[in-house]
Amino acid sequence: MSKPKAVLKFFSASLILTVWCQGRLLAAHGGTEEAHRKGVQAEAGTWSSGESSRTASDSPAAMAGMIREMREQINIQRKQLEKLQSALAQQQAELDRVLRTIEAKSAPPQASADAPAASGSDIRAEQNDASREFELIKGELEAIATSAAETNQRLTKLESETAAYQKSNDGKIRQIGNFNFSGDIRTRYEPFFQEGAPDRHRERIRVRLNMLGRVSDEISGGLTLATGSLDNPISTNRTLTGFFNRKSFAVDKAYITYRPKYAKFLKLEAGKFAYPWYRTPLTFDSDLNPEGFAETLSFDIKSPVLKNITFVGFQLPINEASGGHDSFVLGGQIQTHLRISPKARLALYGAGININRADSIAVALGGDLRPSLPNSNTLRMNRNGAVVGYATKFVYLDAIMRFELDTHPRFPTAILFNFVNNTRGSRERSGYWAEVTFGNQSEVKDVQFGYSFIRIEKDAVIGAWNESSMRSATNVRSHRLNFSYLFKSNVTGQFTAWIGKLANPLDNTSLVPSGVRAACTGAAVSGCRDPYLKRLQFDLIYKF
After folding, report:
1. Which residues contact 7 (CB under 8 A, 6 or more apart)?
2. Contact 501/533 with Cβ under 8 angstroms?
């Protein structure tokens, strides 16, 4: 065999050996990946069959590690493929150089006529062999590239299957049968500082567990268990005290909801449920859940400005008397949602709430009803000094405006104003709540902060039901500063400062701190004052 042909055979054999080894590596990787994919499917089948020998979080973690290993193998093989392509190009250049040398030497002396013919035939044979070997190598290289692309596709599919499997596992963890579970745990450190009163420091905890079940597409129900005192409807907190006694855990919500298919605009609720109407803590605390019946009619409007109009009605029994008249709440609200511009939205709410026979609430204070804050409403007494009711009746005219502006993706702005008037009150019957908020709490590292100003006159609302963290339920002027930070999707840090005082301390001298109360009870009361109470709340909230 001639030297050029030997060189060509050597290069070709080297290239074929390299390509064959690369193909074996990719084939082995493909088998590993296929086995892993089957393992994922088998594991999903194991979960669905009900085996509980391993936790739901183990499989996604293992698959994530295997995917990382597969990515590393793909990167290594991609680099090897690039080197192989470079070697092929170099060997092609060397082959061309050898062929040019052979062609240059293929012209023999004139004396031998048969020799040139034989030499040219050998050269053409070598060229044909080299061409065939080159095409074979090129085909194998293209097959390897195709195999690598298919492997990448299988890897992408495997990642999608893994994500879907993990999402399915999360859903199965939260769902048992027709029930979905969720809840939250909040820990709080809460100091109090006020002139004339001793400083106070307390630690509190709140736990809530929600269960939501769906009987059909039309009927669903819910149950919420929460901590809190059984005689305090406006707080689910429990103070860490009581010599390590257990904390009470009771029914906070229990309701059934009906949404008929033939009237999707209609929702009916019965039981103890979340507020069906929109309100602020000016009138009702966020921890209070009313009970009774509620009806909602909601209509989406295809209009450039008016987007939705909703009507809400509710009937809420508050005291059933076996030998007398029952007490109850009747109310309704109209809600409108408007789009002012692509970045601005406005919502308007108007409600009328009639609290029938509210005197039973006043009589229950200190007995069956012990709200977080002492009474600050005007009470009516009998000759013996016993409470027989309120000095006024209570019918709320409640108006709320909320304006939202997309000033920044992470820092939208919300402005809220709430005005309430007790139309049956004789004096001191109005309340105001103004609030501005920046930011949101939708993504990790999101920040939200805001400020609220609250002014509630003495008989504007029933003090047993509204915000429980203020200086006083009514007859109060208060400021609220709040800041929240989302550490994780389910962990929030929050700080709230309530700074307030009695608006007219002479109307509630019993609430003035004992250290400065003397100025409010003597003959000269011009120096009567209520120092600002500074109530700070440091919260850590975990949701599940």
Report:
1. 94, 98
2. yes
